[in-house]
Write a structure and sequence with these properties.
27% helix; 17 strands
């Protein structure tokens, strides 16, 4: 029987934080669960804290499709460096904040963060200030929640806000990859993820499936306006952030602009993705499918060299290649990883739309140019939201209460 469509890609998505895979099975300890508006939380008391919260630290999950999987988040936060265990050993009550739909609007998920903060305050013994923050999108959600609470006159009792590789100035998914999600000839989770409210709010440039145009999504513009209305940042707590990318302007040395990143054959034959290059009318991807027959070339204008930029990396092309192989495709994978959250974005130092800003040597910039009170970039390029001793201990050294 002849094929009448390309094979179904199934339920694959681009992974959310943390990106590191646990080396083995990591048991999640017993915990209390809080139901929250648009979310839920798991509570892990600190060592020696019996009968109530004493030093609460709320840590929000990041972006993906569907309900938060806090067991996977817990395991990821214990991989590479045992972040939760060390926090609890130091007497911190760890509260993992999850969302009913991780791809929902950041404004909606901020309601879960606000509710978690208020419940922590209500159950806390003593007067230690809270620590509130998150990983990737979670750092944006909690940033907005704290700022909105301050604007509304609500006492959040938070002494420190932190973000871990959060896209404060935007994230990057290659536009050819975004376009491919909608080129697949049936509904799929990948397309749903790329077209979700949170993706539209966080991506620096978004591929619009209806118009085929590439630009700033209206949802991003509206979100930035909403952030501006609440003052952009919480003003009461100390604000800190870390980046999984380097600070010295050195990106991914093997990812040169304009190279083939991934070519697919057998299915979607000849479909090719290229690393992002500067210039006008630059080919980012050539898409081809057999059933129903169609082809499309995705081009960009005046983009910087995003894929090889300094920043936390994502297995973007490896995830896509592995999915195509499972479906019987033949792949030529040249670059597994590309930059996802540029360093200048993660430390809120500069926008990412210009080459000179994207590749800026952060070490030479005035600290006052940034928006965070303090920050640290990784000494080596690491995966987006990877737990490293360098970044984790830097955060813990700033927990003063």
């Amino acid at each position: 029987m002849p094929e009448t469509t390309e094979p179904n890609v199934g339920s694959f998505t681009l992974g959310g934080p943390p990106t590191a895979e646990p080396a083995g099975t990591i048991q999640v300890p017993e915990h209390e669960e809080w139901p929250l508006p648009n979310g839920f939380a798991w509570v892990f008391p600190g060592e020696g804290n019996h009968g109530g919260l004493v030093r609460p630290m709320i840590m929000a999950d990041g972006f993906n499709l569907g309900r938060s999987k806090l067991d996977e988040l817990y395991q990821g936060l214990e991989t590479g460096y045992s972040f939760i265990s060390e926090l609890r050993r130091r007497g911190r009550d760890v509260i993992l904040l999850g969302f009913e739909e991780r791809s929902a609007s950041i404004l909606d998920n901020a309601e879960a963060a606000e509710a978690a903060i208020m419940r922590a305050i209500g159950e806390q013994q003593g007067d230690a200030r809270l620590v509130v923050g998150g990983f990737s999108m979670g750092g944006i959600v909690t940033r907005y929640a704290l700022a909105r609470m301050e604007r509304q006159g609500t006492d959040h009792r938070t002494g420190l806000y932190f973000s871990y590789d959060s896209p404060h100035r935007g994230a990057s998914i290659p536009v050819g990859v975004q376009a491919f999600s909608h080129f697949i000839p049936f509904p799929n989770d990948f397309a749903k993820q790329m077209n979700s409210p949170a993706a539209r709010q966080m991506l620096w440039q978004h591929y619009d499936k209806d118009t085929g145009k590439i630009g700033v999504a209206p949802e991003r513009t509206k979100f930035l306006e909403a952030l501006d209305r609440v003052g952009n940042w919480p003003r009461i707590p100390m604000t800190i952030g870390v980046a999984n990318g380097r600070a010295d302007g050195v990106g991914l040395p093997d990812v040169k602009p304009g190279e083939v990143a991934l070519r697919i054959d057998r299915i979607y034959p000849g479909t090719t993705f290229y690393t992002q290059a500067q210039g006008d009318d630059v080919t980012a991807a050539y898409l081809n499918r057999r059933f129903p027959k169609a082809e499309k070339t995705i081009t960009t204008n005046n983009f910087p060299e995003l894929d090889g930029a300094p920043g936390g990396t994502l297995h973007t092309y490896k995830i896509l290649a592995d999915t195509m192989k499972k479906l019987g495709g033949k792949v030529d994978l040249r670059h597994e990883d590309v930059c996802f959250v540029p360093s200048v974005s993660a430390v809120a130092m500069r926008d990412i739309g210009k080459q000179e800003d994207l590749y800026a040597d952060i070490n030479t910039l005035e600290r006052e140019e940034g928006e965070l009170g303090d920050f640290l970039c990784s000494s080596t390029t690491t995966a987006h939201t990877a737990m490293t001793e360098e970044l984790c201990t830097w955060i813990m050294d700033r927990l003063t209460d």
